[in-house]
Write a structure and sequence with these properties.
Layout: E1 12-13, E2 39-42, E3 49-50, H1 52-67, H2 73-89, H3 99-115, H4 125-132, E4 135-136, H5 140-146, E5 151-155, H6 159-168, E6 175-178, H7 179-182, H8 189-199, E7 206-210, H9 213-221, E8 226-230, E9 246-248, H10 255-259
Parallel strand pairs: 1-6, 2-5, 2-7, 5-6, 7-8, 8-9
Antiparallel strand pairs: 3-4
Helix pairs in contact: 1-2, 1-4, 2-3
Length: 260
C-alpha cells in the first residue's frame, strides 16, 4: 500500500477554472468488488483536523471580554453558529460566498445585537490561523495506514486554507474537493455529486464520514451515499438531525468496516 503521508503521487484537485488533475492510481488503491465500499469520502475540519471548537471558543471569549457582551462565550458561539449556518445555506452556486466571508458576515450580524456595527475582522485572526495550520486528530494516520481504498476529502473550506493545511501535514489524498472549488457547501448535493464524478464511484458503494449531522450526514445521505457520523467527545454545536448509517467515536473504528 502507498502511504498517504508524504506520498509523491498526484492528487485529483478541482480548481476554480474547472481543471481536474487526475491521479496515477497504484495497485493498492484498486478495490475488488467483494468489498462493501469502493471509496471513502471524508470531512476535514473537526474530522481530520483537531481544534475547531477551541479556535471558535477562543474568538468568542475575546469578543465577550473586549466588547462586554452580556452572555457567556459558549452562548455567543451557539448564536453565531446558527447565523453562520443560515448564511451558508443561502451561499451556494450563483449566490456563493467564500467561507471566510460567511464567517465574517455571520459574526458581525451576531455582534450587532450587543455592540452595534463592529468590524469583526479583528476577532478572526486566530480562526484563520487555525484553518491554515490545524493539528491532526491522533486517529487520522492510523486510519489512513490501515485502509486500502481511494480517499476523497470533501470539505466546507476555502481552497487556499485547506490546501495549506494538507500540505503542512504532508497528506496526499486521492481527491480534494473544497466548497470554494465547486461554489457550494455541504449539505448541498452539488459538492458530493462533483466528488462522485471525479472519483468515478457509485453513491451506494461510497462511505462519507464527518462530524456534522447537518452538513455531512444529511448532505451525503440525500444522494444515497452511506454515512458515518464521527461523534467525538469534544465537538462544535450541530444543528442537524439526520440519521447516520454508522456512528463512531474515533476514525479507526472504520477500519473493520472498510476492510471487509
Amino acid at each position: 500500500m502507498t502511504s498517504r503521508l508524504g506520498s509523491d503521487r498526484k492528487r485529483k484537485r478541482i480548481h476554480n477554472d474547472g481543471v481536474v488533475l487526475m491521479i496515477e492510481q497504484t495497485p493498492g488503491n484498486l478495490l475488488t468488488r467483494s468489498r462493501p465500499f469502493e471509496a471513502l469520502f471524508i470531512d476535514f475540519y473537526g474530522t481530520i483536523a483537531a481544534g475547531d471548537l477551541e479556535a471558535v471558543e477562543a474568538a468568542c471569549e475575546r469578543i465577550v471580554d473586549e466588547l462586554s457582551v452580556p452572555i457567556t462565550a459558549r452562548e455567543f458561539a451557539v448564536r453565531w453558529g446558527r447565523r453562520f449556518f443560515k448564511i451558508v445555506e443561502n451561499s451556494n452556486h450563483e449566490s456563493f460566498q467564500t467561507l471566510s466571508r460567511c464567517v465574517l458576515v455571520s459574526l458581525e450580524d451576531s455582534l450587532r445585537e450587543f455592540a452595534g456595527d463592529v468590524d469583526g475582522t479583528r476577532f478572526l485572526d486566530g480562526l484563520e490561523a487555525y484553518w491554515r495550520a490545524p493539528a491532526l486528530h491522533d486517529d487520522v494516520l492510523g486510519l489512513f495506514a490501515a485502509i486500502d481504498l481511494p480517499v476523497c476529502c470533501v470539505s466546507n473550506a476555502d481552497s487556499k486554507h485547506l490546501g495549506e493545511a494538507l500540505e503542512l501535514h504532508g497528506l496526499r489524498l486521492d481527491c480534494v474537493v473544497a466548497s470554494e472549488d465547486v461554489r457550494c457547501y455541504k449539505p448541498d448535493p452539488g459538492i458530493f455529486q462533483y466528488a462522485l464524478k471525479v472519483m468515478g464511484v457509485d453513491p451506494s458503494r461510497t462511505l462519507h464520514v464527518g462530524d456534522s449531522l447537518h452538513s455531512d450526514v444529511g448532505g451525503a445521505a440525500r444522494l444515497g451515499i452511506k454515512t458515518a457520523w464521527l461523534c467525538r467527545k469534544v465537538r462544535t454545536h450541530d444543528i442537524g438531525t439526520a440519521k447516520p448509517d454508522f456512528t463512531i467515536t474515533k476514525l479507526t473504528e472504520l477500519v473493520p468496516l472498510l476492510s471487509e
